[in-house]
Amino acid sequence: MNKKSEFPESIQSFASYAKLLSHPARIAIMEVLATRQTCVCGEIVEILPLAQSTVSQHLKELKEGGLVKGTVEGTSSCYCIDWENFNQMSDEFSKCINGIKEYQKENGSCC
């Protein structure tokens, strides 16, 4: 039995997005994509100190996680942030973080 299912959906969602963004390269790729309307994968390779195959793998992870959408036409790939999903993720992060902060207000600190 998967113990993850025992937790509320909001916590599961938060954990999934946190895991998706747990690698610095994926955060850097998101920053690059945020500065452009669309981005060809080759441009990311020129900006970041990563091999083409590494960038492609991270883009695949981000796409599978729903934070990036993209198309592949021949040897050209074009990616952009899925802003609807990104904003949903951002809202989930805020809710969870603010919920945890509330406990600090109520209980103070033990250390």
UniProtKB/TrEMBL annotation:
CDD domains: HTH_ARSR. Keywords: DNA-binding, Transcription, Transcription regulation. Gene3D superfamilies: Winged helix-like DNA-binding domain superfamily/Winged helix DNA-binding domain. Transmembrane segments: none annotated. InterPro entries: ArsR-like_HTH (IPR011991), HTH_ArsR_DNA-bd_dom (IPR001845), HTH_MetalResp_TranReg (IPR051081), WH-like_DNA-bd_sf (IPR036388), WH_DNA-bd_sf (IPR036390). The keyword Transcription regulation applies. GO terms for molecular function: DNA binding; DNA-binding transcription factor activity. Residues 6-101 form the HTH arsR-type domain. It comes from the Bacteria. NCBIfam families: HTH_metalloreg. This is Arsenical resistance operon repressor. The gene is arsR1.
